[in-house]
């Protein structure tokens, strides 16, 4: 069995990064999911889970210094990974930030309208999709379930 440290080998890191699909404008949800998984696996999601610590002073404790360094490293590398996985044309439309959590929020704002359009398309498909008899009933149900799952991811749950 592979050791946990093998997850941080250069080959593993290259594999993780190459598996991220570039943000192109139509794949925000998938891109965000991939980014979250990769940053979590690489233990770099700390900056997304924890607010920025206070700036260090001469009186800062060892624990505060360690927390600040962990957050700073996580933030810096997370920003590099996010920015490197966004198409150049799209990157220019996103307000820049030195904070990975804030940068991700800016990206979400940019694609919120796209998500609404995608949700409308999915709802229309669900309402108009009928079982055609050529494929199995199971496949039809799975297709409908997939669309419902996608809508749930867009905060539009179908019950």
Automatic annotation (TrEMBL):
Short name of any one Pfam family annotated for the protein: Retrotran_gag_2
The protein's name: UBN2_2 domain-containing protein
């Amino acid at each position: 069995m592979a050791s946990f440290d093998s997850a941080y080998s250069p080959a593993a890191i290259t594999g993780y990064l190459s598996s991220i699909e570039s943000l192109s404008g139509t794949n925000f949800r998938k891109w965000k999911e991939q980014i979250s998984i990769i940053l979590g696996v690489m233990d770099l999601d700390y900056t997304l889970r924890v607010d920025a610590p206070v700036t260090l002073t001469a009186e800062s404790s060892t624990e505060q210094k360690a927390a600040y360094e962990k957050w700073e490293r996580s933030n810096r590398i997370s920003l590099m990974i996010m920015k490197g996985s966004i198409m150049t044309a799209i990157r220019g439309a996103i307000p820049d930030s030195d904070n990975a959590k804030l940068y991700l929020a800016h990206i979400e704002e940019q694609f919120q309208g796209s998500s609404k359009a995608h949700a409308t398309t999915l709802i229309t498909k669900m309402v108009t999709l009928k079982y055609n008899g050529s494929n199995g009933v199971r496949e039809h149900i799975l297709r409908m379930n997939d669309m419902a799952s996608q809508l749930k991811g867009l905060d539009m749950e179908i019950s």
